[in-house]
Design a protein that fits this description.
By secondary structure, this protein is α+β, with helices and mostly antiparallel strands. The chain has a single domain, classed as Ribosomal Protein L22, Chain A (Alpha-Beta Complex), CATH 3.90.470. It is built from three helices and six strands, in the order βαααβββββ. It has a three-stranded antiparallel sheet, with helices on one face. A three-stranded antiparallel sheet has the order 2-3-4, with helices on one face.
């Protein structure tokens, strides 16, 4: 059976590096640091929302730093769990000026 998780968050929650450092991986922090201020908030909000949505879809007891959300060359986000690509999980992130929403789908038939 497939499972779906969704999360929505305010971008403004993620304006301090100390806050985002609690849930972003080292590589995500590196990308975060190279963004403009507006994009930093959206980037961090997107990663947080994906990780929350993933938890809701799977109920896995993962530390947020064990989950890494990156983008491929065409900009599509994908997930690494403990450094390994998980093809059973499809994700999507959408940003607005003040809010970000993310969806995670666990596809069990792969």
């Amino acid at each position: 059976m497939n499972k779906v998780g969704i999360d929505i968050t305010y971008n403004e929650r993620f304006k301090k590096r100390k806050t985002v450092g609690k849930f972003l991986t080292v590589k995500e922090l590196e990308i975060y640091d190279n963004q403009t201020n507006r994009n930093k908030k959206q980037f961090a909000a997107g990663r947080f929302a994906v990780k929350e949505a993933l938890y809701k879809a799977t109920n896995w007891k993962l530390n947020f730093k064990e989950v890494e959300v990156l983008n491929n060359n065409s900009g599509e986000p994908y997930i690494l769990i403990k450094g390994e690509l998980d093809k059973r999980i499809a994700i999507s992130i959408s940003h607005e000026k003040r809010i970000t929403v993310a969806v995670a789908i666990l596809i069990n038939n792969i």
